[in-house]
Amino acid sequence: MLKLLKLLKDGRFHSGEALGAALGVSRSAVWKQLQHLEAEFGLSVHKVRGRGYRLAAPLSLLDAHLVGEAGADGCWPVQVYDEIDSTNAEALRLVSAGRQAPFVVLAERQTAGRGRRGRHWVSPFAQNLYYSLVLRIDGGMRQLEGLSLVVGLAVMRTLRAVGVNTAGLKWPNDVLADNRKISGILLELVGDPADVCHVVLGIGINVNMQSCEEVDQAWTSIRLQTGQLVDRNNLVAQLNSNLRAYLDLHRQSGFESLQVEWEQAHLWQGCAVSLIAGVTRLDGTVLGIDKQGALRLQVDGVEKSFSGGELSLRLRDDS
User: Fold this and answer.
1) Active-site residue (options: 109, 114, 116, 232)
2) Domain tally for the chain?
3) Residue 181 annotated in active site
4) Average pLDDT in the 101-111 region?
5) Based on the domain organization, do 165 and 251 belong to the same domain?
6) Interatomic CA distance for residues 198 and 188, integer angstroms
7) Is 278 helix (H, G, I), strand (E, B) or coil?
8) Residue 124: pLDDT above 60?
9) Is residue 314 annotated as a catalytic residue, yes or no?
10) Domain of residue 106, residue span
11) Cβ(107)–Cβ(205) below 8 Å
């Protein structure tokens, strides 16, 4: 079935006869596979008598070889799955099985994609980027300081490079464009952070998605922002390059060296916000971040710092 999808990915018409010949099956078998494609992957196939079949919109399918060709020499090995529960979950399984880091896990679709605070990450087939990079961290809590914020900078630079000029950061792990979410980041650790551990940098980017009723918040995508179909293999290569540059700087000089750059990109700098932790809400004004990446808020005239994976930031109505 995926072979058929690769024949149709250009968005052009292909006759049933030509598709059957390429697949070595009958035209009726092609028709059954097309029905299955629509049902299984949520794709729309246009059928026109005398012209054949085409996808409602072209697809950019992931290919580890093409990612390598588009990227710089010496970048991380890439493993691509057609479908998986979660790229982060698979990355953790591969670490447990002894796979040597660094490496990247990509998927065309996730059946159980995860966001922060246990939220479901909507993952339609071949539309977006579901990406996990595994790194080995040797003996250094300092290497983990502000790491999710560093990843956010790399994602933002990647988005701006492909034409999303309004891309900016929201503490702690979101990238927004025109005040709509375009990317989220989820970091997971396994091992001893004080000795040897592995960290999975999970990144979701809305790439070619143009509609989705399942997302319960304001969102956008690269395609909606630019009007162009994005080659996701080139996008992965650019993301790899930006991540490598920022991670090298972070490793050499610590998060402090990136603090000012991050604050300059923070869309809610100086804004009135509410910090949510479970059922607790704290109102304040964003002052910035500290040298470890914690949020600095002015609360009732007093500066306070906050960090933790269970915190969420919201703009106040009076901001």
Assistant:
1) 116
2) 3
3) yes
4) 94
5) yes
6) 8
7) coil
8) yes
9) yes
10) 64-263
11) no
